[in-house]
């Protein structure tokens, strides 16, 4: 068995992979691919994207049965989930204030309730309240009325609970939230952050289990949306796409290589540098960062697809009778230059400041170097000296391609025309919507939108944020800002649920004196059938309330519902506190902005605008570092091939990029960071072609044909892999595949056309 | 018997027809239930006296009751304030037009209301199983003049409502008296033409 060494090497590398993965932590936080924030607003937005309250919300819809059945399932699920420590808050529309919490809130009603205003305790107001109590006692709801009315005739407690009930955005039917359809709705907020994929998956599993345990009636369906679902669906879609593509491309590439080299062995040969490169990238990034970003690993492995070219170039460029070791030595200067230039192109990514891109750059650079070294030093030792036999190219095709340099003028003209055309149309369109980058499939996002709309989760476009030294100061700040902006929008904030201690004290201080309130009750009772002592509990509670200390965020252990309600709106941040105010029904954005500017320390974040600015900054930065990379590559090429030779290669490369972006623009693609990353990959591939083709100037025809054959093989394998990726729906795979497919075809044609003419001495270097 | 007039509504004739049969049954409670089951629909006017500890005189309200087997009971109060109280299946609808109030409650979700509703509804339906599910049931009297006393099984509910007493004649329910912390409520029904 002449190839046992290759198999041994592959087996060794394959064994090393899981071993290495066990020691490297994989992370998946898409915000790693957003730029570092330069403004307070951007910093805030990035933090919200990572761990804001919205990222922890799971929405369940139950449909496909009669409303009564849906309500029963909803209640059963809520009961089960409310006891699950993984959830901070579960609500399905039924009032689920526990007895302890209700008692605590009832005791503090005159401090907490917005209805506990001085005007509620005037004699006419009390008279109206007492008439209301009598009316309530006459109704069938009398037991309920009696439970609260004699201690709380002004209805401070019930007004407070009503204020919390989500402003009745969702209709309640059979005691639970029911959207048209009918569809029962259940909300669950996880304790774990949205980016904690494992915890989110568990939460999703818990909800699905609760649905099954609720013994759903025949036909009842559970719809679920939330970050956990997104992560799972995205992973599943990407995995499905990748599996299909890798299987298809394995078959296609394998078939092609088998035809070209008359042996299935070539596939194994190609795998060796690829595996070595991947391992090296993983090891280097893991050592430097302590963890590897899942996306960096994914993109990185895609980018390392380039190194397939190295063994192909080695095996195909072997002259008849030449030992493979000599071929490796002969092509090494060119290969080395190609790798150095590719690494130089990646280097600016290391300085980009996006944690994800730094990892990606480092992964690809180390992988390229390792793969090149493997090709140079390891492969010749693993393979028999005669390498693999290569089937010659069809003569007519080789002839036509080798004659392309004669048509250089036409090609240059075409490039100039395209450049002018692209410039005249303003270049390709840049993507402005963060959602377009999301790997989450469109139907899943559509369901999320529908459920969110039904739940009445406000479409938050603007967030006001303020920092303060203490929770009390943050609550006071929220009250002040909300009061100042009240005319311009409806504002939700933490102090609506838990007023600042100062406000609570002020409310209690404004309660009438014992004697005064007793006299007013006596007067208000005149002519009504209440006994003289009927409202004694009310008088006693007012007296007690006056002596109570205010309720503060630290006291909320006994009030889980209240705690869960203010958690997204008030939270500690290091030693300080952050309060969020969410304006909805904004009547006058300009006035809101102006009023917000008047409050020192207040941050107004326009989510959509800020996201777009972030993406634009991201893309601009990417273009800038691509430019710097291009410059480094030019310098390196000029050093390796002389000014003219370098310019020739740079022109082939630049031309390929130009044609690619023109084609993308013509296809209506909006350019994302994925296209730009793919362009980098493409530049690396294109460089190999141009470098190896341009060696042909001082070679004999046979050698030129071999070089051409090698490059064509490289191109076909790349097309077979990336062409399939272009058919995927996942944005990152589609963008990468499309860009590379178009680009590689262009780079190949340009490399042929711009190669030195036969016998053209100016190019010798 | 007053309701046994010649031109009385159909339900009362049926109730009377059921009497002789029921009277022969060894268990008078089962016989009463059978008589009640034999009434598919009925209408009545009611007067309700509600005594509340905090009030120095009872609240008196008047209105109509309408029953339709198997599970629809409507109590329509006309004075002092109009109100509709309707239970059908698992749904309870409480409507007070003067206050613009309309509330739907799922009885499954209201373990403290369901026994109170079933006390009345399961009795009208002659459904002793449901009655026993929620209450301890005792019986006195005979088919022609009976009294059923219910004590809620739920300890939590018994904290608020200690006893419900129902009185009737054959398949006709005449008096419902509820004794609870909220005072005593006595509802007297008179079959309507």
From TrEMBL, chain A:
Q: How does it sit in the membrane?
A: Multi-pass membrane protein
For this UniProt entry, what is the primary localization, expressed as one broad class? membrane
InterPro entries for this protein: MMPL_dom, Mycobact_MmpL
Compartments, record wording: Cell membrane
Q: Which domain of life is it from?
A: Bacteria
Looking at the UniProt entry, the stretches that span the membrane are 242-259, 266-289, 295-315, 335-354, 360-383, 404-424, 613-637, 649-667, 673-692, 704-726, 732-755
Q: Which Gene3D superfamilies match?
A: Multidrug efflux transporter AcrB transmembrane domain
Q: Where is the Membrane transport protein MMPL domain?
A: 193-383
Q: What is this protein called?
A: Membrane protein
The organism's taxonomic lineage, starting at the top: Bacteria, Pseudomonadati, Pseudomonadota, Alphaproteobacteria, Acetobacterales
Automatic annotation (TrEMBL), chain B:
User: Which SUPFAM superfamilies does the record associate with it?
Assistant: Prokaryotic lipoproteins and lipoprotein localization factors (SSF89392)
The UniProt entry, under InterPro entries, shows:
LolA/LolB/LppX (IPR029046), OM_lipoprot_carrier_LolA-like (IPR004564)
Please provide the record's keywords in A-Z order: Signal
How far does the signal peptide extend, from start to end residue?
Answer: 1-30
Name the UniProt record assigns to this protein: Outer membrane lipoprotein carrier protein LolA
Q: Can you name the source organism? A: Roseomonas fluvialis
């Amino acid at each position: 068995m002449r190839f046992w060494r290759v198999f041994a090497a592959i087996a060794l590398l394959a064994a090393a992979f899981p071993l290495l993965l066990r020691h490297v932590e994989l992370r998946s936080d898409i915000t790693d691919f957003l730029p570092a924030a330069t403004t307070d607003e951007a910093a805030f937005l990035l933090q919200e994207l990572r761990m804001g309250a919205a990222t922890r919300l799971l929405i369940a819809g139950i449909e496909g049965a009669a409303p009564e059945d849906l309500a029963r399932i909803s209640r059963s699920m809520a009961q089960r989930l409310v006891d699950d420590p993984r959830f901070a808050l579960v609500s399905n529309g039924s009032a689920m204030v526990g007895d302890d919490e209700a008692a605590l809130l009832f005791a503090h009603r005159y401090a907490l309730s917005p209805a506990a205003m001085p005007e509620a305790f005037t004699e006419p107001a009390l008279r109206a309240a007492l008439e209301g109590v009598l009316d309530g006692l006459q109704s069938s709801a009398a037991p309920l009325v009696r439970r609260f009315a004699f201690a709380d005739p002004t209805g401070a407690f019930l007004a407070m609970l009503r204020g919390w009930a989500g402003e009745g955005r969702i209709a309640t039917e059979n005691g639970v939230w029911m959207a048209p359809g009918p569809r029962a709705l259940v909300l669950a907020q996880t304790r774990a952050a949205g980016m904690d994929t494992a915890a989110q998956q568990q939460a999703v599993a818990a909800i699905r289990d609760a649905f099954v345990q609720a013994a759903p009636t025949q036909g009842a369906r559970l719809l679920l949306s939330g970050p956990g679902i997104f992560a799972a669906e995205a992973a599943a879609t990407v995995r499905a796409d990748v599996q299909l593509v890798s299987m298809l491309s394995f078959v296609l590439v394998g078939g092609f290589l088998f035809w070209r080299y008359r042996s299935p062995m070539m596939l194994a040969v190609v795998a060796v540098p690829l595996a070595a490169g991947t391992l090296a990238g993983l090891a280097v990034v893991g050592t430097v960062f302590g963890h590897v970003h899942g996306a960096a690993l994914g993109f990185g492995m895609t980018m390392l697809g380039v190194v397939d070219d190295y063994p192909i170039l080695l095996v195909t460029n072997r002259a008849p009778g030449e030992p493979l070791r000599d071929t490796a030595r002969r092509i090494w200067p060119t290969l080395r230059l190609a790798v150095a230039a590719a690494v130089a192109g990646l280097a600016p990514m290391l300085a980009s400041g996006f944690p994800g891109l730094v990892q990606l750059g480092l992964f690809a650079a180390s992988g390229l170097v390792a793969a090149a070294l493997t090709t140079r030093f390891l492969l010749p030792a693993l393979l028999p000296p005669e390498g693999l036999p290569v089937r010659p190219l069809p003569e007519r095709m080789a002839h036509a391609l080798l004659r392309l340099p004669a048509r250089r003028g036409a090609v240059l003209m075409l490039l100039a025309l395209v450049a002018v055309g692209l410039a005249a149309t303003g270049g390709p369109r840049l993507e402005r919507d963060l959602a377009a980058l999301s790997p989450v499939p469109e139907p899943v996002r559509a369901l999320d939108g529908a459920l969110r709309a039904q739940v009445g989760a406000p479409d938050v476009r603007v967030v006001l944020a303020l920092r303060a030294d203490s929770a009390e100061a943050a609550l006071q700040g929220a009250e002040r800002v909300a009061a100042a902006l009240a005319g311009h929008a409806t504002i939700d904030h933490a102090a609506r649920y838990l007023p600042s201690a100062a406000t609570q004290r002020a409310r209690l201080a404004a309660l009438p004196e014992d004697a005064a309130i007793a006299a007013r009750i006596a007067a208000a009772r005149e002519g009504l059938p209440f006994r003289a002592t009927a409202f004694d509990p009310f008088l006693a509670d007012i007296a007690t309330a006056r002596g109570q200390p205010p309720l503060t965020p630290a006291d909320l252990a006994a009030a889980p519902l209240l705690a869960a309600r203010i958690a997204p709106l008030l939270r500690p941040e290091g030693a300080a506190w952050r309060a969020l105010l969410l304006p909805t029904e904004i009547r006058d954005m300009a006035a809101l902005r102006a009023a917000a500017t008047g409050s020192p320390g207040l941050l107004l974040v326009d989510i959509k605008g800020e996201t777009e600015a972030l993406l634009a900054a991201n893309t601009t930065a990417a273009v800038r570092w691509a430019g710097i990379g291009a410059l480094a590559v030019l310098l390196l090429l000029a050093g390796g091939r002389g000014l003219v030779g370098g310019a020739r290669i740079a022109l082939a490369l630049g031309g390929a990029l130009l044609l690619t972006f023109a084609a993308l623009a013509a296809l209506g693609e909006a350019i994302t960071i994925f296209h730009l990353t793919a362009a980098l990959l493409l530049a690396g591939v294109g460089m190999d072609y141009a470098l190896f083709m341009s060696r042909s100037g001082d070679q004999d025809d046979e050698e030129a044909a071999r070089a051409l054959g090698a490059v064509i093989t490289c191109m076909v394998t790349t097309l077979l892999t990336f062409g399939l990726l272009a058919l995927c729906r996942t944005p990152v795979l589609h963008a990468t595949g499309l860009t590379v497919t178009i680009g590689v075809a262009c780079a190949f044609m340009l490399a042929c056309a711009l190669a030195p003419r036969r016998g053209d001495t100016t190019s010798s270097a | 018997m007053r309701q046994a007039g010649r031109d009385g509504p159909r339900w009362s004739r049926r109730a009377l027809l059921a009497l002789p049969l029921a009277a022969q049954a060894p268990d008078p409670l089962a016989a009463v239930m059978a008589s009640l089951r034999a009434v598919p629909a009925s209408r009545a006017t009611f007067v309700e006296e509600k005594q509340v500890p905090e009030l120095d005189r009872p609240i008196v309200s008047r209105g109509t009751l309408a029953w339709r087997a198997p599970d629809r009971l409507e109590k329509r109060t006309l004075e002092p304030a109009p109100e509709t109280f309707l239970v059908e299946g698992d749904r309870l609808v409480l409507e007070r037009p003067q206050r613009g109030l309309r509330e739907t409650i799922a009885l499954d979700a209201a373990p403290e209301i369901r026994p109170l509703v079933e006390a009345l509804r399961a009795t009208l339906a002659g459904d002793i199983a449901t009655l026993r599910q929620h209450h301890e049931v005792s019986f006195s009297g005979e088919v022609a003049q009976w009294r059923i006393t219910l004590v809620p099984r739920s300890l939590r509910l018994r904290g608020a409502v200690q006893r419900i007493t129902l009185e009737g004649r054959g398949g006709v329910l005449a008096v419902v008296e509820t004794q609870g912390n909220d005072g005593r409520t006595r509802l007297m029904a008179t079959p309507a033409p």
